[in-house]
């Protein structure tokens, strides 16, 4: 198979991993993170990778399993943050109102706790290392117990989960509360996960985006005011936690095609060699296509029509078939 020659896909290398994002159980969101603090089942979390800054400032997202299908994004220059707090209408104002430094890379605004992850691979590595070092360390059980009791009342801080099911994730606590309320609150006195927020910037803005000290505030002025101009992701997880999550899945396909560790390893073949895929229906081979940046492969909608149309096909069946086909896709990635 030809060597990978696409600059965006060449970034898909284990040495370039910055971090990942991962979903929690739906019940956790419904309870404002008080209960059911566990990862959602059946996911293949996104991997965010940054190019060597000596080559470029580009980063890519490798999104194996999503409603819209398998995707490797086109490399672009983006600024990333990890933010704990309620949904926001104006991201710029949300992070700059009453801005205060907490410790290390950790900042707080009126209702948010956040960390700037940066632009490049070097930025990501430094930010994650500093965030781990400057966070309190808890086990999954300790975090679950603290939120179940709803009695977190210490100064503003972040937590790194170092043991148990939620290992590798980061959580924030806001001493003054996540919202102002005269009549009590369902969200205060609880840890909330640091979730990803990112948006594109111009090449000439990288220096501003990386500003430190007195120049840090200027980096926040790059944040759009319109929430529609930012990408909001799931919970931040470090590279080690991300790999451990994949490796712990004995059968991600549900039909014994590939183990989680094998799937993790084969994902990175996309960065080494050009990969092609096809499918059969009624014994007929569909023309092969190359996996290219921006191309979405095997979206959920396909499985209402493939291999035969059935508008009444149950959603769990659609999800299972999509996951199976995407795992087959990745299992077929070649390394020569």
What this model shows, in words?
The protein has about 325 residues and is of the alpha+beta class. It has two domains: about 10-245, no CATH class; about 250-330, no CATH class. The chain contains nine helices and 18 strands. It has helices at about 25-30, 90-95, 120-135, 140-150, 205-210, 215-220, 240-245, 260-265, 315-330, and strands at about 15-20, 45-50, 60-65, 70, 80-85, 100-105, 105-110, 115-120, 135-140, 155-165, 170-175, 190-195, 195-200, 230-235, 275, 280, 285, 290. The protein has a ten-stranded antiparallel β-sheet. Helix 4 (about 140-150) links the parallel strand 9 (about 135-140) and strand 10 (about 155-165). Helix 7 (about 240-245) crosses helix 8. The longest helix is centred in the last third of the chain and has 17 residues, at about 315-330. The mean pLDDT is about 95.
List its salient traits:
336 residues, alpha+beta, four-stranded mixed β-sheet, 9 helices
Which consecutive residue ranges, at least 5 long each, have pLDDT under 50?
A: none
**CA distance, first residue to last residue:** 5 Å
Shape: globular
Which range does the strand content fall in?
15-25%
- The helix/strand series, from N terminus to C terminus, equals EHEEEEHEEEHEHEEEEHHEHHEEEEH
Number of helices: 9
Q: What structural class do you assign from the helix and strand content? A: alpha+beta
Number of strands: 18
Question: Level of helix content?
Answer: 10-25%
Main sheet makeup? 10 strands, antiparallel
- The strand order across the widest sheet is 4-3-2-1-14-13-5-8-7-6
Mean pLDDT: 95
Give me the Rg, rounded: 21 Å
Overall domain count: 2
